[in-house]
Specification:
The chain has about 140 residues and is an alpha+beta fold. Helices cover about 30% and strands about 25% of the residues.
Length: about 140
């Protein structure tokens, strides 16, 4: 994962997520997974204590810094108990809507980054939810 320096826009992934939300078919799921596998998504984070950015816009961390990933607790599907999930945004606009205009630090994370976080023995998250404020 890397800190975000540019505006992220995954138009094809956003369209694929919207298509699955409208009609959850195997074809739409396959298309979404194809774009999901190749896209960098925004992972909101809280950095404690606040990290300074260098002249290139990268965070400078020391051993004292801790990074907490944003999560959401909800039922992902009907008739499924609530659980906690990491959050993934397809683009900067979706994240901005979720944050209600407040500034949010974020990293660019790929599907394999989420897999690593979810497969850790201490992981309590059940997966990740894409665009919790919108298309999902």
């Amino acid at each position: 994962m890397v800190p975000r320096k540019v505006k992220i826009k995954n138009e094809l992934l956003t369209e694929a997520v919207n298509n699955v939300a409208k009609e959850n078919t195997p074809e739409n799921q396959k298309e979404m997974i194809k774009y999901l596998a190749g896209s960098g998504m925004l992972l909101p984070v809280k950095i404690m204590p606040v990290a300074k950015k260098d002249a290139n816009g990268y965070y400078r961390f020391s051993p004292k810094h801790k990074v907490a990933y944003a999560t959401i607790t909800k039922a992902a599907f009907e008739n499924v108990p609530e659980a906690s999930y990491y959050i993934a945004f397809t683009d900067s606009d979706e994240m901005k809507a979720w944050a209600a205009g407040k500034p949010v630090d974020s990293f660019v994370a790929h599907l394999d980054d989420y897999a690593v976080m979810l497969l850790k023995p201490e992981a309590k998250m059940k997966g990740f939810i894409i665009n919790p404020a919108g298309a999902n």
